[in-house]
Amino acid sequence: MTVHRNDPCECxxxxxxxxxxxxxxxxxxxxxxxxxDVLEVVTPQTIPYFFWKKWNEMRTRGELGVLWDMLHAxxxxxxxxxxxxxxxxxxxxxxxxxxxxxxxxxxxxxxxxAYLLSSRGREDPLVKHISLEMMHLQRTVDGWRVFDVKSDRxxxxxxxxxxxxxxxxxxxxxxxxxxxxxxxxxxxxxxxxLEPEPEDETEEQESGESSPIAPMELTEPASDVAEAKE
Length: 230
Fold this sequence. Notes:
single chain; 230 residues; alpha+beta; Nuclear Transport Factor 2, Chain: A; 4 strands; 4-stranded antiparallel β-sheet; 2 domains
């Protein structure tokens, strides 16, 4: 028996089918046609930058099964969902992290963890805020996996907005140096060398260190003078 959009949902929720399980059913039908395996998309050799690009690619293609498998099994982000179906259903109603309109700003990587900071709206003159997102990856035996995702936004000012991991409470040497520069610090080895001011010419003459040389008088050769008299 075919269930139509406005029929009561068969799950017994009392809602119409279109407002309940219809989206999940459509997603499951699409997933049944998906043959991609997560290890075909990201491998243990995939570096965090390409992991982030692959995540965006799978997100654009709607490969929710692959995205689910790209989550860390014990991660905080995956813990937001009760199961795979919950993830599929929520993905239809709320945007997943990142996407084609996000720009990767900074990457922080160590042996077992990686952080990718991206932004959206920085160059858009129509928006007053810049959306920020920090994707936290952890390394597993199968490669990097999404452990958590945090979001924030900053208000645009008159000047260029400085974006750093400090927006999410994460320390970095770059941010510490930026704070020092904003406070007036400047590296002396990179400072412009000022040309020495010219010394007073009067003082030079009195000291005898140097004196202007009088211009030589030009005289006509003796032969030329004799010819002129004749």
